[in-house]
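Please fill in the sequence for the structure shown.

STRUCTURE ENCODING:
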């Protein structure tokens, strides 16, 4: 029988995409100067969070010097800083920071994953790499039986989840745009908290926080806690 622990082991051991394997391992050896003393993870990055989650957050892929370094999705980079701060404000995380895999972060009611599990060159997986990796997300989504809202961070994640549910193409993407999924779940779109969006003001903190407030409304969890 499939389980999240078993799936995690499969993901971490995966070597299905030669280009991604070569790149993630190259980055783990070359490193960034500011992380020279760190031991990089350099493997595929599994999902992270609460097995009883009502909210599933789906990103693009691990960052070369973020999750590819720390081994935990969205951990150790600025996109992750935005995501986990927002999840904390919405009551899904016990702390607003995500520095490394041993920092004590816990999620309640939320699970975070990605369409592609290896850091890709230039942060751009190929369509074939995406499609090879989608099976992992499909199995995660099936195991997370209490999920009611799937938040996709960016159009790439929307396209991946759309393929997962046989809804391709889902052309309507925009911040806080919603789609009904065949299994009764709600797909909620968000701009990705990448630096190109946050530094330019395309995505602001209030706008990002609104995504997770809306997720709470859909799941009937009520308003976010006062922080």
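FILLED IN BY: designer on duty
SEQUENCE:
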């Amino acid at each position: 029988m499939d389980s999240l622990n078993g799936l995690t082991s499969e993901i971490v051991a995966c070597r299905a995409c030669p280009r991604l394997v070569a790149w993630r391992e190259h980055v783990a050896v070359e490193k960034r100067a500011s992380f020279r003393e760190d031991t990089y993870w350099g493997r595929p990055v599994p999902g992270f969070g609460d097995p009883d989650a009502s909210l599933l957050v789906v990103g693009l892929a691990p960052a070369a010097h973020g999750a590819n370094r720390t081994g935990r999705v969205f951990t150790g980079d600025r996109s992750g800083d935005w995501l986990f701060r927002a999840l904390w404000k919405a009551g899904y995380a016990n702390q607003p920071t995500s520095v490394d895999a041993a920092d004590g972060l816990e999620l309640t009611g939320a699970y975070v994953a990605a369409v592609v599990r290896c850091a890709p060159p230039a942060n751009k997986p190929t369509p074939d790499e995406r499609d090879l990796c989608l099976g992992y997300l499909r199995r995660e989504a099936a195991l997370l039986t209490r999920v009611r809202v799937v938040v996709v961070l960016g159009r790439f994640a929307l396209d991946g989840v759309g393929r997962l549910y046989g809804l391709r193409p889902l052309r309507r993407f925009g911040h806080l745009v919603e789609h009904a999924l065949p299994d009764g779940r709600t797909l909620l779109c968000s701009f990705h908290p990448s630096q190109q969006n946050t530094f330019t003001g395309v995505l602001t903190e209030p706008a990002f926080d609104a995504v997770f407030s809306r997720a709470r409304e859909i799941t009937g969890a009520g308003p976010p806690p006062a922080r």
